[in-house]
Amino acid sequence: MSSKIAAAPKTPQPASTPEVASLRAAHLMPLPGPMYAKPIQIVSGQMQFLYDENGKEYLDGFAGVATVSIGHSHPHFVRMMKNQIDQLQHNPPLYLHPAVGAFAKRLADKAKTVNPDMEVCFFTNSGSEANEMAAFVAKTYTGRHDFIAVQRSYHGRTLLTTALTGQHNWRNQQPYPVGISFAPTDYAYRFEGTPEQSTAAALRGLEAVLNTSTSGKIAGFYAETIMGVGGLITPGHSYFATAADMIRAHGGLFICDEVQAGVGRTGEHYFGIKHWNARPDILVMAKGLGNGYPIGAIITTKAIAQAMAGLLHYNTFGGGPMAMAAANAVMDVVEKDDLADNSKKVGDRLLAGLRKLQQKNERVGDVRGMGLMVGVELVKDRKSREFSPELTVRVVESMKDQGVLVGKGGLEGNTVRIQPPLCWTAADADRTVAALEQALKDA
Ligand SMILES: Cc1ncc(COP(=O)(O)O)c(C=O)c1O
User: Fold this and answer.
1) First to last CA, the chain
2) Of 65, 125, 155, best ligand 1 pocket probe by most atoms within 8 Å of the beta carbon
3) What are the two backbone dihedrals, phi and then psi, of residue 204, each rounded to the nearest 5 degrees?
């Protein structure tokens, strides 16, 4: 498997970290970050490694929030982007360009693995915008406007996608459009009963929401395959197929948000939803699709897409030649290096290591996820399962000091998120488990 290509960082930036931090604080809209009490400045990257301004190396376990799928400055990606910028940098949808239709076919062919009728794409600049477009298409196709989303979900930062997000701290743009209801989460770790009972209860909850909070006729159901921002909550195996059937019985579309789970991250398959054998009507992608170059996409069937015929809509940058070069480069590498397979192998090793740690340390409440989309929920103790957000902050900081960058998530802020570039090796997984073990000791 591909690994570090050049150990040396590229030319460091001259500015010191305090200077950089104070410029950001003075001239950017107040932001929640930077992430660490002792913030870091990243100036270069190679595959799964990042470098600060002093050349200190970090193992990247968060991939710029599940975005750098094939690796930082992957040589094939760099070559494809350089070639494209030399040739043509921008092309609006007004003129034909050879890349966009060809890549749409390439992506739709992948989507046929989860729905054989998938044929049509629409490209955007972000996941939020792609989710917006999915709603537009679903409303147009069904002639309805009610949507159901899932509690603890995250779907983006536009007005509509914030309204579709089921976490109070992200729901900060009131008032919201009417017609959005929330179904309960299949959150087995926090359910009093077996995982199967958790799934059955979540499905009963969805049926109840359909029958009590909507007119019974809906435009669509939004669900992340595995919740990313929500803390890697992973529904049970029967959840999505049953949920999708239920939604279709009420005339709605199953809009599957694979902004984080797509591109092979969950292992074995290009799309995470394949693990559940559920058929989405619209797939939503972004993040890893472009390895950090801004791109989003929806993929749907010809019959659904046809509803948009004659409706004026437009996107200045969507499907532009640079975005298509990025997406083609990513897909080339995912296929050539079989990164979905690597994600499964390295992810299984990571999960096994973390589960061993869970046996030894009762602060490790739950270990969940698939492939290289893994969450570790930290708690006060095994019995109470009390959320431990302060411990999580200390653990993530300590791992950074040990040279391993991971994320933090979950509504209660107590889940360590491990979502690295898909070129991670077994040694990277082992190192991360060891760093987490040490961090728990330090904390
Ligand atoms: C599942 C999911 N959907 C949508 C989005 C929004 O994507 P973007 O930040 O590109 O707008 C995100 C971003 O984190 C996400 O995780």
Assistant:
1) 34
2) 155
3) -65, -40
CB distance 242 to 268 below 8 Å: no
CB 272 within 8 A of CB 370: yes
Please give the structure tokens belonging to residue 303.
């019959």
Rounded to whole angstroms, the Cα distance separating 243 from 333 reads 33
Would you say the CB of residue 128 lies under 6 angstroms from ligand 1? Answer: yes
Would you state the structure tokens that stand for residue 388, as one six-digit string? 């431990």
Domain 79-336, second-level architecture: 3-Layer(aba) Sandwich (3.40)
**SS3 of 73, please?**
coil
Count the residues in the chain.
443
How many A from CA of 382 to the centre of ligand 1?
Answer: 32
**Is the CB of 155 within 6 Å of ligand 1?**
yes
Alpha-carbon distance values, 432 to 3, 94, 119 (Å): 16, 48, 40
Phi, psi of 11 (to 5 degrees): -50, 120
User: Is it true that domain 17-60+339-442 has CATH number 1.10.132.30?
Assistant: no
Q: pLDDT tens string for the chain (443 positions)?
A: 445 554 455 555 568 888 988 898 899 998 776 789 999 999 999 999 999 999 999 999 999 999 999 999 999 999 999 999 999 999 999 999 999 999 999 999 999 999 999 999 999 999 999 999 999 999 999 999 999 999 999 999 999 999 999 999 999 999 999 999 999 999 999 999 999 999 999 999 999 999 999 999 999 999 999 999 999 999 999 999 999 999 999 999 999 999 999 999 999 999 999 999 999 999 999 999 999 999 999 999 999 999 999 999 889 999 999 999 999 999 999 999 999 999 999 999 999 999 999 999 999 999 999 999 999 999 999 999 999 999 999 999 999 999 999 999 999 999 999 999 999 999 999 999 999 999 999 98
Q: Measured in angstroms, how far is the CA atom of residue 69 from the centroid of ligand 1? A: 15
The ranges assigned to domains in the chain are 17-60+339-442, 79-336
Ligand 1 midpoint to CA 130 (Å): 9
DSSP readout, 81-141?
A: HHHHHHH-S---TTS--HHHHHHHHHHHHHHTTT-TTEEEEEEESSHHHHHHHHHHHHHHH
Evaluate: CB of 126 within 6 angstroms of ligand 1.
Answer: yes
**Would you list the DSSP string of 342-400?**
HHHHHHHHHHHHHHHHHHH-TTEEEEEEETTEEEEEEBS-TTT--B-HHHHHHHHHHHH
**pTM of the full predicted structure?**
0.96
Residues ≥6 apart with Cβ < 8 Å to 393: 37, 408, 413
